[in-house]
Amino acid sequence: MAYVFKNAQGTITASALENLGAGWEFIENDTKEYIEFLEHSLAEGSPFRESDIQLARVLEDLISILIDRGMVRFTDFPPAAQKRLNYRQSMRKKNRLSGIVDENRDFIY
């Protein structure tokens, strides 16, 4: 669920996860208009976008290592973080993205 702000022509110009006040309206996450807005926003993206994606993957692996070594417990994370970590881990397993090392190339990407 999201909230969007539209210009006078009815085109989405901004989005937020909560209602930010006058002019913001609720929109379902799966509407075509909202998905197109998100895709366009990502295409324009900041220069840090790809780096952020790669860093997120490194952090996921770091968390797994810390848990595996008993340095931190999964239950130390707040419930919302646990949910996100479980979701990401299941997504990576489905897509065979279990680690940051590419076994075919022997380097980190």
Rg from alpha-carbon coordinates:
18 Å
Number of helices: 3
Number of strands: 5
Order of helices and strands: EEEHHHEE
- Report low-confidence residues grouped into runs of 5 or more: 102-109
Shape: elongated
Percent range for helical residues? Answer: 40-55%
Question: Gap between N and C termini, in Å?
Answer: 33 Å
The chain-level structural class is alpha+beta
Strand content: 15-25%
What's the pLDDT, averaged over the residues?
81
Number of domains: 2
Largest sheet: 3 strands, antiparallel
Protein name: Tryptophan synthase subunit beta like protein
Q: What this model shows, in words?
A:
This is Tryptophan synthase subunit beta like protein. The strands form two sheets. Strands 2-1-3 form a three-stranded antiparallel β-sheet, covered by helices on one side. Strands 4-5 form a two-stranded antiparallel sheet. Helix content is 45%, strand content 17%. The chain has three helices and five strands, in the order βββαααββ.
